[in-house]
Design brief:
By secondary structure, the chain is α+β, with helices and mostly antiparallel strands. Helices cover 39% and strands 18% of the residues. The protein contains 24 helices and 17 strands. A five-stranded antiparallel β-sheet has the order 2-5-6-7-8. The protein has a four-stranded antiparallel β-sheet with strand order 9-10-11-12, with no helix packed on it. Strand 10 and strand 11 form a beta hairpin.
């Protein structure tokens, strides 16, 4: 497991507040300082945000000789706004004389929000030690100014990090998580220097502390590679630490990385493990044979994640198996992923198959992916990163967004075949009928073991820091009214959709029998050809996943749900057409038409609007017109009969 940190807010955040009139440039330091005083009198709080004008003025201040000497005294100015502006100026100074350390500390004690990084500009162990100490007691660590101060301190902060990691000073449940997250973000020189010290803590200490420090070693990356022999020996002496040592070996990209992943994937494969393997790159190539076998796994998510990982670890022998997935009938994401992985592998043997896919595949993004793969194979080039290198999860899960951002389709050429109110109930027009189908279900969430009060002694909102050590699963039973229900011979197939809080598909028999068939968010349910199907999935934050599942009855009367077709995104709307096909629109603006035999094609959009081009008034008018048309279509249907 790698230490992951949210984006550090280490920049001056632009504000929309009205800015004072200041000149574009100040010719002298005194003139610049006078403009700072003018800014401070504007009456707004400068402790948490700065406008671009203010930031530009501070840049000008720092260009003048003697800027630091002039800014430091302002930290103690009675005007707190002026003190905060001075703190922001010192935050980005190149160097601060150690003689100003006491004034910096007093400014921090005063609560000047921008000042912590100034500790990293002072070239002393004392300042670095202060930065680490303040990091560990700051409320929003590790994504804060104190973390930036430690990062700036570099090697100077390593002794303090080691001392706190060894719990020679006060330790709490968050100490190692915070230190590990910040250390992982520091330069390679600092991480290499920390490696030996961290291992020195592990060797003589009891397992609980040793596990936490091994977690910090995991975040060192290749800077900790020299620890491999000692880590292997440690696991041999203390088998109880083997899982933690394995993750540390993976984290430092040891020669055993592939073998460790291969063993774990054979035991219990899951998507996040494949993501972590992919992030290991060529160090994980030894797991390639096992991962290739997962291309035929029963879980569609495992299959596509395996195809994705093979490209990143560079396992060339997988080319033949990947070519077979270019025509996958169930999961179009797998076809897209196989094409890109073949490009990453520079698999020349795949050129004929990729040429065919580039010319004839039914889905545009797959054709584009095949064409791009051909170019990389022929030119011997590598794929550029879509995201920052520290955002590898977004890079890996790009297959969840293969359709990209498109114009929103307001109306498809494929018309809707309305279903009778006796057969289909929707929340928009049959709430009373659906309420009589309410069922008990369990909502699962994750949070602290015992949630503390949401406010502190002063009535302010509290920040609850969650770590792997204090997160537990919470379950509560609720009475769920379905959002959709389809009438069948002896009951109803009903679906619930609570967004990020989950959903389910339930059979509700006329005889009172109830069965939860599937734990997924349900968008709609249909009698389709000679089968029953449901469109399911969820779009939340950066993820988007959806499927059309086949619902079949077993010999004992129970229901079973199986993946029939995987969608390249969560379903946002679906309906039957007069031609007996199923249209499904997915999150992001792309529609698909599925025939009863499972063949898919892209839907034809008759009317769109591009949110970047159409003004708000026009968009609202279009939405109102569509709403009125839908209301007219639904007029006269009360949905009250079950």
């Amino acid at each position: 497991m790698r230490w992951t940190v949210g984006c550090l807010l280490l920049f001056l955040v632009p504000s929309v507040a009205a800015e004072p009139q200041v000149s574009a440039a100040c010719g002298s330091l005194d003139a610049c300082l006078q403009q700072l005083r003018v800014l401070a009198k504007q009456g707004r709080d400068f402790g948490s945000s700065m406008t671009s004008t203010q930031s530009d003025l501070l840049v000008q201040v720092r260009r003048h000789p003697g800027a630091v000497d002039a800014l430091v005294p302002l930290l103690e100015d009675p005007d707190e706004n002026l003190a905060n502006i001075a703190a922001a100026g010192l935050r980005d100074a190149k160097v601060i004389d150690p003689k100003y350390f006491p004034q910096i500390v007093r400014g921090l004690d005063r609560g000047l929000g921008w000042l912590a990084p100034a500790l990293g500009r002072i070239d002393t162990d004392e300042a670095a030690d202060e930065a680490v100490a303040r990091l560990l007691v700051s409320e929003d660590a590790p994504a804060n100014q104190e973390a930036y101060a430690v990062k700036l301190s570099g090697r100077r902060a390593v002794p303090a990090i080691i001392a706190h990691a060894a719990c020679r000073r006060a330790c709490d449940e968050n100490t190692h998580w915070i230190l590990g997250a910040v250390l992982a973000d520091m330069n390679a020189e600092a991480r290499r220097e920390a490696a030996t010290g961290l291992l020195g803590i592990v060797v003589p200490t009891p397992d609980p502390l040793a596990r936490k420090v091994l977690g910090m070693i995991d975040g060192l990356g290749e800077a900790g590679a020299a620890l491999e022999p000692e880590l292997v020996a440690l696991a041999e002496r203390r088998p109880s630490l083997q899982p933690n040592v394995d993750m540390a070996l993976v984290g430092v990209r040891s020669s055993r990385t592939g073998a460790i992943f291969a063993k774990r994937l054979q035991e219990e494969p899951y998507v996040l493990m494949l993501r972590d393997l992919a992030e290991a790159g060529s160090a994980g190539a030894a797991a390639g044979e096992v991962v290739t076998g997962l291309l035929d796994h029963g879980d569609a998510e495992i299959r596509v994640a395996a195809a994705r990982a093979l490209g990143f670890i560079g396992y060339a022998p997988a080319a033949t198996a990947l070519v077979e997935k270019l025509d996958d009938a169930i999961d179009v994401r797998l076809s897209w992923t196989a094409a890109e992985s073949l490009g990453r592998l520079h698999a020349a043997s795949a050129i004929p198959a990729l040429e065919r896919i580039a010319a004839s595949h039914w889905h545009t993004p797959v054709r584009v992916a095949a064409g791009t793969a051909l170019r990389h194979i022929r030119e011997g080039t590598v794929y550029p990163l879509r995201f920052h290198e520290k955002n590898f999860p977004l890079e890996f899960f790009a297959y969840q967004h293969i359709t990209g951002e498109r114009e929103v389709c307001l109306k498809y050429a494929e018309r809707e075949q309305r279903e009778s109110r006796e057969q289909k109930l929707y929340a928009r027009n049959a709430q009373a009928a659906l309420s009589r189908l309410a069922y008990a279900t369990t909502v699962v969430s994750f949070g602290p073991l015992e949630p503390p009060d949401s406010t502190d002694d002063d009535g302010d909102n509290r920040i609850i820091r969650l770590t792997p050590d204090n997160v537990v699963e919470h379950r509560r039973t609720v009475l769920q009214t379905p959002s959709i229900a389809l009438r069948i011979d002896d009951g109803w197939l009903a679906g619930g959709n609570r967004g990020e809080w989950g959903g389910e598909l339930v059979f509700i028999g006329d005889d009172g029998v109830r069965q939860t068939v599937l734990d997924r968010n349900v968008e709609d349910i249909f009698s389709f050809g000679n089968r029953y199907v449901a469109t399911v999935g969820l779009a939340h934050l950066s993820s988007s996943a959806g499927e059309v599942v086949d619902l079949s009855r077993q010999s004992d009367g129970s229901w079973r749900a199986e993946t029939w077709r995987v969608l390249p995104g969560a379903p946002s709307m679906s309906y039957l057409t007069p031609q007996g096909e199923l249209l499904v629109a997915t999150n992001g603006g792309t529609g698909f038409v599925i025939s009863p035999d499972g063949r898919m094609r892209e839907a034809v959009c008759k009317r769109t609007y591009d949110t970047s081009r159409v003004d708000r008034a026009t968009r609202r008018a279009q939405e109102a017109a569509d709403a009125a048309a839908a209301a007219a279509d639904e007029a006269g249907r009360d949905g009250s009969q079950l």
